[in-house]
Amino acid sequence: MNRRQFLSATTAAALSPASLALAQGSAQGAGGRTLTVGVRSGPESIDPHWSTLGGHIEALRHVYDSLVAQDENLVLRPGLATSWRAVDDTTWEFKLREGVTFHDGSPFTAEDVKFSLERIPQVTGPMSMTLYTKRAKSAEVVDPLTVRFVTDGPAPTLPNDFTRLMIVPRKIGAAPRNEEFNSGAAAIGTGPFRFTRWEPRGDLVMERFDGWWALKDGATQPWARVIRREIPNDAARIAALKSGQVDMINYVPATDVASLQRDPTMEVVVGDSVYVFNVYFTLAEKLPRLAKVDGREIEANPFRDPRVRQAMDLAIDRRALARVVFEGLAKPMSQLMPDSFFGASPNLPERRPDLARARALMAEAGYPRGFEIDFHSTSNRLPGDSALCEALAQQWSRIGVKANPNAVTGTVFFPASTRGDYSLQMSGWGTLTGEAAYTYGAMIHGPDPSVGLGNFNRSGYSNPEVNKLLLDGSRTLDDAKRREMFARAAEISMNDRPMLPIVMPQTVWAMGRNKLSFTPRVDQETLAQLVTPKGA
Amino acid sequence: MTAFLLGRLAQAALVMLVMSVLVFLGVYAIGNPIDVLIDPAATQAMRAAIIRQYGLDLPLWQQYGHFLGNVLRGDFGNSFVFRIPVLPLILSRLPATLELTVLALLIAAAFGIPLGIWAGYRPEARSSRAIMALSTLGFSVPTFWIGLLLILFFTVELRWLPSGGRGPVGWLGLSIWTREGWTHLLLPALNLSLFKLGLLIRLVRAGTEEVMGSEHVRFARAQGLPERQVVGLHVLKNIGIPIVTIFGLEFGSTLAFAVVTETVFNWPGMGKLVIESITSLDRPVMVAYLILVVLLFVAINLFVELTYGLLDPRVRAR
């Protein structure tokens, strides 16, 4: 413990007598190591049920455990539940782990699972966690270590959804909201770290929980204390690492990777992500922003012609984009999620550019001299978004499509996109659950509030055959059949091209050379329990 | 005096009202905050429910009416993002910004006033030209760039000072009680002071040059007063009013909008909070913050005007 950490420990201790006892405890403990991580974003509360935001979930996974866990490639693994099975079409049964205790020493039981599920609709915020629990109509405690969920129809992805269901103890009662969690009074989980203190957009400080259940299964837990320091500015985060203020950082921008690699004291770790940049064509009869031919607005929507969409696809050189815009830290994509995910199609090969064919298709479609169109994207949502927007516009200019690149901040982009103000747009989408229903159901199924599908369908695409596959797939419990249906839906829709997957940006972490080992996760989570000191 | 104060308060209330209307209209013009706050995978039914829950389905004037009614009862509402009351949230950041701003202004004053007087007193000297060149740099080079250079030099290369963040917090929520706190405070304060330093040097120099040529200085010299007294008393007193005015305004604007420095140095102040609230369209935080800023400016202006009286007997007589 160096001087700074000691001082911050004493400040925290001054705030609450409980943390004083903790600080003394860890000072006496064997491994007094502290891990300080510089992160781009942090939680919005200490209540795990408040928000579905990636940074929120990631931070709180240190304090709480979810019912189902995911490995680094998002394959389901036992978490607080050790096994699960569908009893019938609308009932799932989860067997719970034995011998798990909360940070306050009380045992974890099925009552806590039921309480957590029922609590979510009451306390969740605008990033509503009900997204992952809405399929479960009720929970029934069968015995202390068995819980059953009744769903509104067959819900094959319930275990995937429950990778986000974090468990809080029932004894905190119905009252606590964000303030009680932020103060620490209600922040009791089963996770590897106890909550010490946090302030919005500030540091999150946690202490090792020696009673963490995974320790019995051979997991290691080398950090006595973990500090997650929120540093949203990229340059400031890198400076903090280089000056030794933090031990590691996440989300290194592609442009800084080369200089960090040259630095003999630094090390970078590159991992794949679940995010894909997609271009969306608006397929409505009339475009919100009309296309222009030879400077004059035209009434027709050129994107309704599949040949135009294909031509624009063939004009894109994805490898060049990955090389130039992302300094090689991106992968060309031909579907909306990585090939390894559940429901991805094996029959969608990489898309290579073919300008001659693209120009021929444009001429066939009646646009031999191309057309002009406004092209919008986010500018601050994912690293590289605005540069990619400009690079795509340049590539399309080679077949006469003059796309006016317009990268705007997410604050402007998302409301306008939801209103349907854009004719041609690009944004990123992450398949956070690691399976197809989440992504294809939202973006490819025709917009249909009655079944809750097509809720993020920006193109207006609706193909009855695909819709049927997606709807049936979302209700098929048989894994093999369901996988087949989603793969088929992916093939049809990707060849219809209502939207074009472009590239998957990779994620980069940086740390001092030979100091830490870290296994990257595709969901980009930087979890202290997955970081170990080298040589330990 | 009471009438004067009451007038000022009424003025402040009016400006705050206008400000809150502008923020509401501004956010409304951008779009529905829900589209930024909500999970993109949310279903249509969830979206509708959340819009209702936050009252964003009501017409704008009704939303504004609710807000105004609550403010009159002293409730600025809860943050959309954090769901905690906005006033304590903003005020918890005040000490951080306050200590940063005060130190930056002190640095600017401690160097700016003497250097400016010297440059005005000996305008042709080589040292004066160097000072003026420095002042031009001070307010023409972008703050964020200087900030990054400072970090690169003092933190990454020399490793003398931390790159950002704030030291341990003690009494009054300030971090100036420990050496550790000062090491964190120094670089951002220096960065923040450079613009003000440049401004102050120019202002003081221009004033000094003008006053040096005036009759009362000539009389003072003819009287045989030592130069130190001529400059330190008669000149300084006469250039005092513009300095105090600019000082007040700069104090206000720095306190309210130290955004760039706070971002580069990851200083957990109000500027950083508000810029992050803007990017997430957290309307309650934006409105409350800007209302507080108006209040701040009114208070500072009032204070500045009262100071004039101390500096200039003619104002007092009025």
From TrEMBL, chain A:
Residues 1-23 form the signal peptide. It holds the Pfam family SBP_bac_5. Residues 76-443 form the Solute-binding protein family domain. It is found in: Periplasm. Keywords: Signal, Transport. The keyword Transcription does not apply. Gene3D superfamilies: Dipeptide-binding Protein, Domain 1, Dipeptide-binding Protein, Domain 3, Periplasmic binding protein-like II. Its main location: periplasm. It comes from the Bacteria. InterPro entries: Peptide/Ni-bd, SBP_5, SBP_5_dom. Belongs to the bacterial solute-binding protein 5 family. PANTHER family: OLIGOPEPTIDE-BINDING PROTEIN APPA, PERIPLASMIC BINDING COMPONENT OF ABC TRANSPORTER. This is ABC transporter substrate-binding protein. The lineage of its organism: Bacteria, Pseudomonadati, Pseudomonadota, Alphaproteobacteria, Acetobacterales.
UniProtKB/TrEMBL annotation, chain B:
PROSITE patterns: ABC_TM1. The chain crosses the membrane at residues 12-31, 100-121, 133-156, 185-204, 243-267, 287-311. It is found in: Cell membrane. Its main location: membrane. It comes from the Bacteria. Keywords: Cell membrane, Membrane, Transmembrane, Transmembrane helix, Transport. It is a multi-pass membrane protein. Pfam families: BPD_transp_1, BPD_transp_1_N. Residues 94-304 form the ABC transmembrane type-1 domain. Belongs to the binding-protein-dependent transport system permease family. This is ABC transporter permease. It comes from Muricoccus vinaceus.
